[in-house]
Amino acid sequence: MTVAGCTAAAPDGPVGGADIVAQTAECLRRIKGALEDADASLQHVVRTRFYVTDISELEAIGRVHLEFFADILPASTIVEVSALAHPALLVEVEADAYLGA
Questions:
Q1: I need a surface site. Which of 15, 37, 44, 58 has the fewest CB within 10 A?
Q2: Which CATH superfamily is domain 2-97 in?
Q3: pLDDT, tens digit, 9 for 90 and up, residues 58-78
């Protein structure tokens, strides 16, 4: 199962405003919710991918990742991009989960 293209987008602007840590946490909460809707959990995640507009925030994003995945430690990739779909978005997250055969 893949949860793709998850951002902190909301009608009035991104959840967390211009704070990449808050946006990252919202992305991961949404991924957690999508997994739960599919009768899965973060424990099933084997890989995450982060697309960020400022790679200098790597350490802060990593701390948020650890808050959600400390016991799991999925493979993770982070890539800096010049922009996302909306200028206020600072991070987009994808997660791959393995649910078994």
A1: 37
A2: RutC-like (3.30.1330.40)
A3: 999 999 999 999 989 999 999
